Amino acid sequence: ALHESEASFQKAVIDLARLNGWIVAHFRPAQNSRGEWRTPVAADGKGFPDLVLVRERVLFRELKTDRGRLSQEQWSWIAQLGDAGADAGVWMPRDWDRIVEELS
């Protein structure tokens, strides 16, 4: 299936965004000496959306596989960004047609 992993889906979204003139910020997790994956964040950063995309507007997007679930922190970020007037949401591979439309 198309974009079976979150990583391949994320790469496709970033590639599409760049083709359409967006700049994209993504903060990659790092593996520590114990083999655990951690995204280095401070303050209330846990759960911050995967991508920040900027062109004539700013989009905050969490990416999930079609079966992925948001953590409580991810839900909180999306909700509070939206409450503050930001364009925040979740994209999944099944949303591809909508993603293409939003980034065009």
Description:
This protein is α+β, with helices and mostly antiparallel strands and 104 residues long. Helices cover 33% and strands 22% of the residues. The protein has three helices and six strands. A four-stranded mixed sheet has the order 1-4-5-6, with helices on both faces. A two-stranded antiparallel sheet has the order 2-3. A hairpin with a 3-residue loop joins strand 4 (51-54) and strand 5. It is globular and about 40 Å long. The mean pLDDT is 89.
Main beta sheet: strand number and arrangement?
4 strands, mixed
Number of helices: 3
User: Helix/strand/pairing class, anyone?
Assistant: alpha+beta
Identify the strand order in the major beta sheet.
Answer: 1-4-5-6
Per DSSP E runs of 2 or more residues, the count of β-strands stands at 6
Topology pattern, helix = H, strand = E: HEEEEEHEH
What fraction strand? Answer: 15-25%
Rounded mean pLDDT is 89
Q: Which spans of ≥5 residues are poorly predicted at pLDDT below 50? A: none
| Distance separating the two termini | 24 Å
Which bin fits the share of residues in helices? Answer: 25-40%
- Gyration radius, to the nearest Å? 14 Å
* Anisotropy-based shape: globular
In brief, what are we looking at here?
By secondary structure, the chain is an alpha+beta fold.
Q: Which properties best describe this structure?
A:
single chain, alpha+beta, 104 residues, two-stranded antiparallel ribbon
Give the helix/strand layout.
Elements: H1 6-19, E1 23-26, E2 30-31, E3 37-38, E4 51-54, E5 58-63, H2 72-83, E6 87-91, H3 96-103
Parallel strand pairs: 5-6
Antiparallel strand pairs: 1-4, 2-3, 4-5
